[in-house]
Amino acid sequence: MSRPQEPHRPFFHFGNPFRMISPKGSHLSPKLVALLNTFEETLAGRLRKLNPKDKDDVLSLSWMKLAMESLCGTHNDIKTLISEIDLPVSDWDEKWIDVYLDISVKLLDVCIAFSSEISRLNQGHLFLQCVLHNLDSTSSNQFIRARSSLDGWRHHIGSKNPRVENCSTILDKLVESLDLPKVKNSAKGKLLMRAMYGVKVLTVSVCSVFAAAFSGSAKKLLDLNVAETYLWAQAFNDFQGNVNGEIRNVFSSGRFMVLKELEAVDGIVKELYPKIQDGVGLAEGKEFRSSISDLESKAQKLSQGLDLLTKEVDGFFQILLTGRDALLSKLRSGGAVSDQMLAGNVGAQVVR
């Protein structure tokens, strides 16, 4: 895929990752090294799976669903890792916890913004149902209603969602949190911070792609520069370059819709609109009926895809929410991190 053709947001540099994994006074045992390598290799595999083989796969609803599944899956990997290294909450640095709580709130806000936009797009399906219902008749009044519903759909889809527009500010704050924390005299803590960094990079990158898609603006995209010393660095750079590059190419061509299923519906709407204006005389034509059938199938595919994506975003939200509750509960009790706690604590922890 070609590289971006328009100005974009600068790369962010995060320094040497080994500065925090192997300073004086700390050493990773072979077991911890093996756990870390397994985690990073799994993350690399998830990134390669997300890297689209065809540019037309970029920002299809099925790809976005896969992206959310990858986030949740990687959060589960962190849960497993924390359980295996057996790091008590009492050993967590107070600074880590404060930053984690702040970042988890920001991610909850991002999830709410995405859920509201998916819901808004799905509401547009009501306009399309009205169009299809009214085009079942050859009455001129029904055609007028169908045209009105198409106008309503175009206005609804073309409007902006303030919550999504505000995502850029939140994402910029999340980028600031990516800088590696200093960990002293704790091999497990260093391993945890390094692993969390990988999931934070994936989370911020995916969220920036979603924000760009939902806002219709390539300005929402973030370009993150990851040191080559991570086992997943090359997979991430390939993923980021292909996905961000294709999205920028789409926008530079003058298209404001990058969601494939939404664009497909919009194409049929643009095709039908002038035919409806020409009157009921076309209603019995084969080409006209074919356009209606095409609209029905594409509208259904869009609605189903949005429903599936809603479930994934809602699931990610619940991971973040229950994670905060679980960590706060453990902090109050002063206990260690248990498997039961981690079952709901993964998502928020990884974005420390």
TrEMBL record:
Protein's UniProt keywords contain Transmembrane: yes
Presence of the UniProt keyword Membrane in the record: yes
Membrane topology qualifier: Single-pass membrane protein
Cellular component annotations (GO), alphabetically ordered: membrane
One Pfam family, short name: ROH1-like
Keywords from the UniProt entry: Membrane, Transmembrane, Transmembrane helix
Protein localization: Membrane
Main location (coarse class): membrane
Recorded family membership: Belongs to the ROH1 family.
Protein name, as recorded: Protein BPS1, chloroplastic
Organism in which the protein naturally occurs: Prunus persica
Upper classification of the organism: Eukaryota, Viridiplantae, Streptophyta, Embryophyta, Tracheophyta
